[in-house]
């Protein structure tokens, strides 16, 4: 229990909270855009949290055992920037606040992970913060189970707005947190009854307290402007072993005399006159970006409050069992352990020798059987498709609260919540999360995948049933546009391996991709092993490579394919070669990696001047990049259909015969 | 209250329910794939619903005032097909059940709207059915308000599974339905405690009854195998004026002696031995696809139960005020009213004359100001961004229960729920829904947009703030990949108009697009009117057209652009022309429509052999289709940034100078 009065509370709570209010109002005014209402409304809550409660050391904002603070209502970014400046986090200066929302400044319109200290996660798209916090709070429990409660024992605090709670993802998050009994997760709801369109009563009648309680949370409602009530509620929330919701009844834009309590304060500058009137009303005699010295001093003291706790923690880490210390340090480094790929290389060699015919989802499981023991930071899971995604391997125990020692999470039918929780696990620092669903349901988790890409964090999505090859489940379950739509997203590695060997290689590449999400698109149907022993080592690392060079003369035809259709391309090659047409097959498991290769390699692979035909059981958008204007694409032109997979390939004309004919038509 | 015993109940309830059970088990077995567990578990509920409660006339399955039945748990499709066959819906024969999940059959793996009678909506992606049903139930209330309760007065029933309720979209749906007081919406939850990974206790601890109650629903829990309890619960639910949840405690796969109550029955054939044992256990002496004559007769009688209600309704329609009858009939036809575009044409002419500089989101509002009065079936809304999306115009009253006479819906911060509800409104039949959010949040509603595309239904998404041009809100709010990812989706018209004239034209095209969703990507920032009076009429209809032909000689450069970047292309053209380089600008507001034009038109527009440069403030995936290998794309290569829009265009090099330089570099 860390409820305490601030050690240097020589300034009043009101003055300290008003520092936030005016920094927010003035910065938004200077930027001529932004959201003053939320920081002004939640200034009292944030002041109590940061001066009395939050375990943090402003001088060391990334200390591993700090409490996490997530501003789910990311539009209120000035609250976070003000707190960062006030508490004295390194590199956040008053000039940064004056440059709010300017190009190149630390103080972006919404908090961008990595841009400034104190930003635990990029937020803005509503509901993402609260959903990511579930992963953080889970990571805390899992790290404590692995490395001991003396080294990991902190809370995760979230400020969420009405919008966050209206988003569906919030329900997945709340439900998952309740089920996982994440007792150290505390959500402070900015219960201001205002949304952009006007009063929340325009669009919602929910009893959120009852909703959270239905998922096993403890709940309370307080006056969000009463510092003692805030402190007491947080203390009570800390004392429970369930996640906690504190509804903080606030006035949006509190302090703006004519606009407070209305949506006019939400997303636009208050205006000079209103701000002047606010100064007058609150007795604030300081100019824009000027703060009373005693209040700033008290804030800085609050920022230093946690220095001892951090030093104590470092002492405990130094004194810890070396094996534990090393394991925790290694986990936090994010580096893969020495020799992590030794087993994988042997596995690949065995696959090339044995040439199994297995679905790439099964091949993924076989790769995981090797990788999971070798990379203990891997945390698996699936959105209720474990057996179909093949995401669970021997030795992986599920996380079953109150026991968090496991490494597999049953996420339930919550694709979006899973993706956000994976982001939170990755952000917490000790884990490499992977999670499974069907590729078609990438659509359900897309906003969270996008945030992972924007933040540049390592998560691995295992997305099986990646084409019409899944068969009878039909078009609702058959991805057509998903490969293109994920290839379109910046900073994503979209893998679609052709066989068991490529699947293992793509897993290795995904784990090595520390700077963003990787997605593995995997087949339901069985695929032969295509790789021959004489291929260069790990060719998937180049994104695309010549799987089979043309024989019997200079290459005349280049067949491009990914995933399950590489087999079709190989069959077409055999037919063309049999007719004396020298034909190469290029497997392209990852376009993004291929695009990074130099022109000479790309030309060597793509064979400019040859007849090019691409085959992929998906829509063709983007294939022109590799085909050129004269090339031919064989794939889907619309949605799929329900039927056995072989029938569907015939029906949609995705066959070796079609590829062969297309090539010959251009010769 | 329609609780009654079946008029021809000469067969026992058990026999009638077992007809469903064995049709499902046998069809899945024949197909060697499918989901027997849910139809077997919910057979009793469905039997009561269809034989005693549901207002329908099997011979006329699309009668407008029928009760709607939505199988949200779409994997249980055999339940729906069995009911369709048993009640005698036209065109559903026993052969169709034998062809379950075969290519070309009516009986797809998941229910596909339009494939077979009785399918009100395509389902399978979990949560979509329940969320769509909210739009249907809202459509019912709105139609009743417009055309009278004597012509529209029906219930909407939903069977939803645990998976549907775990999806976040269910919360948006539940919350919206509660707020809108959709008292005639009744959800029958297949409360079987089983998910694919095993018992639901693996991943959830929710008290769903409490959750629904928190959103204003009435709730109850019953034995889902007790027909009288089922009937009584539905009767009670009908009597309330709130939406109703009935938790039907069932045994999944009920009747399969060794597998019932386990996830083994969920998604795989039971096996011949298990089915034989089920026959034995239930005393079912009939072979596969054979039914006892008395049970089938009783089912057919149940299917004919509603014939009188339908005939009575037709009588009331015939006797109705002709103005009401005509208005309702016109609405149900889906046709746009005579002269609907007269005002729009005048509006376009005025725009060309006046040349306003306005954001295309504002231009959209101006188009709506003309269209909303002319097309009374338009129902607007926004996911809490009304003022930013510019979706509400004078004269549009919000829907405020219990008054459903309005035509504007405050959807709240529920993008996904909005998109699904729009689908439901369109499916109900009388309305053309449009709804607004930011383009970046297309990701939140993508699964519902996909279903609209798959079903081929008319909905219009107004998606504003369509690029870095939104400025300071930064990369979380700036779409980069969204145009490509939506262009990748089959059967979507993705519009990105360049100015106020194109915006009006694209609205017209969207309303005329009866066969699928249309999306309007609109700017936050002001755009000059570019269209000159001498352009052919409605050139946007061709998807792309020459906005400004090259001057001073044969065209040497073709600049391709969409939306706000057409202005940049026009500036670049001016610079190139000033240097004596004949340059054309092609505006491409809709790729999909352009792709449908013949080759000669496309060549005339694209100018093969000319230097081609495309400019779009988005990622480049797919532009090669129009650029060819030698063309140059000027756009985004990664995520955006926070800053004023003009700074961002400069920073990311999306400028007339860059376009000019790119063209000259290739000359």
TrEMBL record, chains A, B:
Thiamine diphosphate binds at residues 75, 124-126, 163, 192, 266, 441. The record marks 35, 266 as: Important for catalytic activity. It catalyses: D-sedoheptulose 7-phosphate + D-glyceraldehyde 3-phosphate = aldehydo-D-ribose 5-phosphate + D-xylulose 5-phosphate. SUPFAM superfamilies: Thiamin diphosphate-binding fold (THDP-binding), TK C-terminal domain-like. Substrate binds at residues 35, 266, 361, 388, 465, 473, 477, 524. Residues 358-529 form the Transketolase-like pyrimidine-binding domain. Keywords: Calcium, Magnesium, Metal-binding, Thiamine pyrophosphate, Transferase. GO terms for biological process: pentose-phosphate shunt, non-oxidative branch. Pfam families: Transket_pyr, Transketolase_C_1, Transketolase_N. GO terms for molecular function: metal ion binding; transketolase activity. Binds 1 Mg(2+) ion per subunit. Can also utilize other divalent metal cations, such as Ca(2+), Mn(2+) and Co(2+). Binds 1 thiamine pyrophosphate per subunit. During the reaction, the substrate forms a covalent intermediate with the cofactor. Its EC number is 2.2.1.1. The active site is at 415 (proton donor). InterPro entries: THDP-binding, Transketo_C/PFOR_II, Transketolase-like_C_2, Transketolase-like_Pyr-bd, Transketolase_bac-like, Transketolase_BS, Transketolase_CS, Transketolase_fam. CDD domains: TPP_PYR_DXS_TK_like, TPP_TK. Belongs to the transketolase family. This is Transketolase. It comes from Roseospira marina.
């Amino acid at each position: 229990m860390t409820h305490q009065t601030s050690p240097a509370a020589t300034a009043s709570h009101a003055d300290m909270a008003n520092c936030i209010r005016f920094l927010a109002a003035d910065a938004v005014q200077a930027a001529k855009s932004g959201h003053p209402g939320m920081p002004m409304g939640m200034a009292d809550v944030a002041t109590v949290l940061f001066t009395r409660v939050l375990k943090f050391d402003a001088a060391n904002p990334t200390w591993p055992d700090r409490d996490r603070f997530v501003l789910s209502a990311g539009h209120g970014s000035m609250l976070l920037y003000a707190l960062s400046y006030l508490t004295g986090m390194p590199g956040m200066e008053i000039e940064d606040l004056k440059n709010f929302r300017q190009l190149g400044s630390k103080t972006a319109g919404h908090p961008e992970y990595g841009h400034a200290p104190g930003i635990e996660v990029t937020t803005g798209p509503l509901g993402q913060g609260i959903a990511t916090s579930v992963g953080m709070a889970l990571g805390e429990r899992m790290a404590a189970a692995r490395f001991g409660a003396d080294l990991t024992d902190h809370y995760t605090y979230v400020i969420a707005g009405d919008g966050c709670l209206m988003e569906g993802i919030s329900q997945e998050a709340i439900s998952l947190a309740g089920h996982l009994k994440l007792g150290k997760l505390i959500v402070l709801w900015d219960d201001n009854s205002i949304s952009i369109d006007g009063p929340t009563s325009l669009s919602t009648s929910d009893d959120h307290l009852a909703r959270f309680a239905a998922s096993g949370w403890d709940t309370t409602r307080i006056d969000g402007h009463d510092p003692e009530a805030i402190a007491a509620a947080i203390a009570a929330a800390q004392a429970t072993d369930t996640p906690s919701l504190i509804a903080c009844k606030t006035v949006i834009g509190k302090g703006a005399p004519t606009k407070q309590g209305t949506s006019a304060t939400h997303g636009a500058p208050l205006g000079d006159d209103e701000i002047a009137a606010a100064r007058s009303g609150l007795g604030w005699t300081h100019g824009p970006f000027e703060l009373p010295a005693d209040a700033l001093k008290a804030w800085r003291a609050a920022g230093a409050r946690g220095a001892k706790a951090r030093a104590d923690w470092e002492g405990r880490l130094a004194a810890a069992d070396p094996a534990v210390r090393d394991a925790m340090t290694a986990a936090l480094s994010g580096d893969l352990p020495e020799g992590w790929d030794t087993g994988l290389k042997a596995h690949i060699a065995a696959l090339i020798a044995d040439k199994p015919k297995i679905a790439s989802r099964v091949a993924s499981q076989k790769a995981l059987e090797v990788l999971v023991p070798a990379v203990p930071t891997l945390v698996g899971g699936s959105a209720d498709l474990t057996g179909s995604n093949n995401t669970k391997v021997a030795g992986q125990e599920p996380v079953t609260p109150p026991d968090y020692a496991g490494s597999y999470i049953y996420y339930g039918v919550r694709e979006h919540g899973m993706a956000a929780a994976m982001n939170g696990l990755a952000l917490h620092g000790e884990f490499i999360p992977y999670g499974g669903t069907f590729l078609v349901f990438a659509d359900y988790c897309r906003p969270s995948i996008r945030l992972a890409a924007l933040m540049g964090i390592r998560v691995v999505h295992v997305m099986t049933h990646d084409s019409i090859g899944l068969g009878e489940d039909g078009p609702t379950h058959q991805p057509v546009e998903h490969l293109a739509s994920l290839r379109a997203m910046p900073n994503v590695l979209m893998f679609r391996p052709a066989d068991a060997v490529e699947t293992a290689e793509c897993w290795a590449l995904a784990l090595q991709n520390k700077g963003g999400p990787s997605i593995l698109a995997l087949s339901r149907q069985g695929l032969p092993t295509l790789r021959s022993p004489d291929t260069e080592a790990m060719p998937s690392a180049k994104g695309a490579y010549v799987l089979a060079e043309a024989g019997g003369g200079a290459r005349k035809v280049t067949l491009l394919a990914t995933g399950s259709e590489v087999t079709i391309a190989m069959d077409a090659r055999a037919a063309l070669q049999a007719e004396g047409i020298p034909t190469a097959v290029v497997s392209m498991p990852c376009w993004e990696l291929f695009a990074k290769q130099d022109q000479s390699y790309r030309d060597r692979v793509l064979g400019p001047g040859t007849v090019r035909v691409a085959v992929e059981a998906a829509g063709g958008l983007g294939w022109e990049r590799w085909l050129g204007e004269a090339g031919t694409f064989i794939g889907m032109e619309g949605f799929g259909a329900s039927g056995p997979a072989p029938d569907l390939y015939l029906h949609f004309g995705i066959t070796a015969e079609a590829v062969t004919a297309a090539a010959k038509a251009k010769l």
